[in-house]
Design goal:
It comes from Tistrella mobilis. This protein is mostly helical. It is 76% helix and 0% strand. The protein has a domain of 88 residues. The chain is built from 9 helices and no strands.
Length: 175
């Protein structure tokens, strides 16, 4: 269950780039075998499918971490609360909304903050899968492009500083 999270991001990005390859990728082969698509799709080369593909891979990679946080949070909910709700005949959806959710809210907030910060800072996954593609340009990739490719140190530094400030602001607001 934790394997996607344990694999280094560069390795999983390259693995998914191969699986999403338009000519010999297993995703296209499987979808064509099932009759879902007629011809291979260039998942990472097409501007309309590149970003959803990268997001899907990022979700695949980080879901085990969020699941582990939620499992730990659920382990802290006292069984007495559930027992009292069962004795009182409270429906399952009300137990979830009024008992479980409020008690795991702090862990849920931590998971949301971690994922939001990861999404803001993502570089390696996007860069390995699509390079400098316009459709998947994140602020980190943009800052790197300005610094390394265009040799514009001022602009690249400003973009990196802006990213730092946004991440810092989000962190302060959530805490």
């Amino acid at each position: 269950v934790l394997v996607p999270w344990a694999i280094p991001t560069v390795v999983s990005a390259k693995m998914w780039a191969w699986m999403l390859h338009d000519q010999f990728g297993i995703v296209n082969a499987g979808l064509m075998a099932l009759g879902v698509i007629d011809r291979p799709v260039a998942w990472l080369a097409d501007a309309t499918t590149a970003l959803p593909a990268v997001i899907l891979v990022d979700v695949w990679k980080t879901t085990p971490f969020v699941a582990l946080l939620m499992l730990a949070a659920l382990q802290t909910v006292p069984r007495d609360c559930y027992e009292a709700a069962r004795v009182d005949g409270i429906p399952a959806w009300k137990v979830f909304v009024f008992i479980t959710l409020p008690l795991i809210r702090p862990a849920l907030a931590v998971a949301v903050v971690f994922r939001l910060l990861d999404a803001l800072r993502v570089f390696d996954l996007v860069y390995v899968m699509t390079g400098n593609a316009e459709a998947t340009m994140t602020l980190s990739v943009h800052a790197r492009q300005q610094l390394v490719q265009f040799q514009d140190m001022g602009y690249g530094s400003a973009a990196s500083t802006l990213l730092f400030l946004v991440v810092g602001l989000v962190t302060i607001l959530w805490l």
